[in-house]
Amino acid sequence: MTMPLPEKNQTVTHIFLFALFVAVLPWVFGLSRATSYYTDVMVFVAIHSIIAAGLSLLLGYAGQISLGQAAFYGVGAYASGILTTRLGLSPWVGIMAGMALAAGLAYGVGLPALRLKGHYLAMATLGFGMIVYIVFNEFIGLTGGPSGFGEIPPIHFFGMEISSTLGFYYLVWTFALVVLWISLNIVHSRPGRALRAIHDSEKAAAGVGIDITRAKVQIFVVSGVFGALAGSLYAHFVTFINPPPFDIFFSIKVLMMVVIGGIGSIWGAYLGAALLTFLPEWLAFLEDFDVLAYGIILLAIVMFSPDGLVGLGSRVMGRIRNIKY
Amino acid sequence: MKRIGFVLAMVGVCAVTLLGSAQAADKEPYRIGALFAVTGPASFLGEPERNTAEMVKDMINASGGINGHPIELFVYDTEANATKTVVAAKKLINRDRVLAIIGPSTSGTSMAVVPIVNKAEVPMISCGASLKIGAPVEKRKWVFKVVPGDDLAVRLMYDYMKKQGIKKAAIMSVSTGYGISGRGQLNKLAPEYGIEIVADETYGPKESDLTAQLTKIRGTGADAIINWSIGPPQVVVTRNWKQLGIPIPLYQSYGFGSKRNIKLAGGAAEGVICPVSRIVIANRLPDEDPHSPVVKRYKALYEEKFKGEVSVFGGHAWDAMFQLAAALKAVGPDRARIRDYLETLQGFVGNNSIFNRSPTDHVGLGKDAYVMVVVKDGDWAILE
């Protein structure tokens, strides 16, 4: 399933070109009134990309499924929200605390859960997600319960308050690009190769001396940390949180982003996040039938291109090359 | 000559028609945005709201618009999802350049939009229920609300209980946002009415038997039971109350205000007392009630057009649309002046009640937004 890996220098060039593209995008959107709000949509694309990148590492490279990513997303959001509003701490402290808490949770849950396989692992992570969701709803004194809480302060960067959409756009995409770079580095490193070995055959991987449990837990922790980072950024952008955005359906949506984009490709996770976030906007003109069209498009992608958008893209490129020669 | 006269007449008619149509086209439409949870878990709110808003828009446009300007309504489905609502609100403000926003339907999505409209300086009339949407006013400069808060329902209920000589009450509430909010107000306001809370039981939204809680309450010497929940538990508690033959009255929240609940309780609901919105008892409203014309008209129009029973929720959209229409008629397409008009709105008769807003109250409703009723012979009877 995994894609052939490009040279390392090539990766840096790709990220650089992608960063340039992202940097000019708001100015392109700004040309027309009809597309000016796409900058807001792109903020959510970045947030979704960060959490999808984490799951892509786990699912695409280590072959471990998780239906509990929304829990990490929520942990990040609530940690940031509570620490900044109740204790008046800096959002940066909130973000770090959220990531640390998610790392601890991922370690604690991952150690027993990642010994499970297939459906059992899916069930375990699903249960974890539901427990965290219940905590958000029931620990009213801490989380505000079902009504949530607001007035989460914006992030300050070198004394500059980042509260405009454009400012936040550049901040959140900087994070998304750093996450992309880290993820691609993990893939190219020794742990990344170990993960792909586990993905293909756990027995063979163990045979060549890979500590399977450790490798799996490590990558689960990374995916949790990315999820928490995305959640914290969400909290500081929307400035209000309540439990619904962190429910099981969001976990499934993240899984869809990874699958639609292309399992086994970090770039695919970004593509999938972009498609699933933008598609409802493009289909809005269908009014009551938009949900139907949304379902049909996703179904068609999975049916006709099981390796997702990245697979579709590389096949189209291949055809074009064949025509040339 | 005759011919020339005819031709001249024709030309004249054409010219007048052309001029007339040109004049109508000159009047730019007033753009209004709406955020409703048309699909998803809160569609029971969003769908009647969307239907009502569209209906009101058609009514206004059919009668010549507002000072000749037709209304253009942009409705987006929020699915009760905060992320979707935030994007849709930005879309309404940046792309559709709306003058004002109606909705969102739920409290959570309304709270997510509050900072956006305050920053963009776009007036918004929320259809959410939470008290936090409209207060504190200093932080809600551009936000208004049409749904009466739980505090008003509790006050009306306590008023009535006090008159009945009730001194000790036992509270039961469901552990959802609805129940938590009601429970908070019940506990907070009880001392003001000289009522002592002798039991405070909570239960889950899927509870199918509440005899344990009721048995416990029976031993506390309470004069009345107050249950604050929505959905199946309010029917369960009614049945259990009858089955156990508890001799003290059962009060329910305004969530009980649907004929369906009386039917589901199968006769056990006789004697249940609750506050309800006027739309629930539209047919029984006396003609001298000042709300009577609005409520009856809305009910007739809605049920005629959509062939379904009218709901309290659609009434919120009706009130919001007509308040906005009144503002546009008075001050024209200017966001700041629309806001000022909404803030000082006086004597507006809506489905919810008569609105009297002020710079310190962005809701503008009193406890007469509800009416106390009792279930009698399988229907509602108004209590004096």
Automatic annotation (TrEMBL), chain A:
Membrane topology: Multi-pass membrane protein
Statement: the UniProt record of this protein carries the keyword Transmembrane: yes
Keywords in alphabetical order: Cell membrane, Membrane, Transmembrane, Transmembrane helix
Transmembrane region(s): 12-29, 41-63, 70-89, 95-114, 121-140, 167-187, 254-279, 291-312
Matching InterPro entries: ABC_transp_permease, LivM-like
Keyword Membrane among UniProt keywords: yes
Highest taxon of source: Bacteria
Localization per Swiss-Prot or TrEMBL: Cell membrane
One cellular component term from this protein's GO annotations in UniProt: plasma membrane
Main localization (coarse): membrane
GO MF, any single term: branched-chain amino acid transmembrane transporter activity
Entry protein name: Branched-chain amino acid ABC transporter permease
From TrEMBL, chain B:
InterPro entries linked: BCAA_transport, Leu-bd, Leu_Ile_Val-bd, Peripla_BP_I
Iron found in the keyword field: no
Top-level division of the source organism's lineage: Bacteria
Keywords for the protein's UniProt record, in alphabetical order: Amino-acid transport, Signal, Transport
Signal peptide: 1-24
CDD domains: PBP1_ABC_RPA1789-like (cd06333)
Domain Leucine-binding protein: 29-378
GO terms for biological process, alphabetical: amino acid transport
Transport is among the record's keywords: yes
Gene3D superfamilies the UniProt entry points to: 3.40.50.2300
Similarity comment: family membership: Belongs to the leucine-binding protein family.
Protein name per Swiss-Prot or TrEMBL: ABC transporter substrate-binding protein
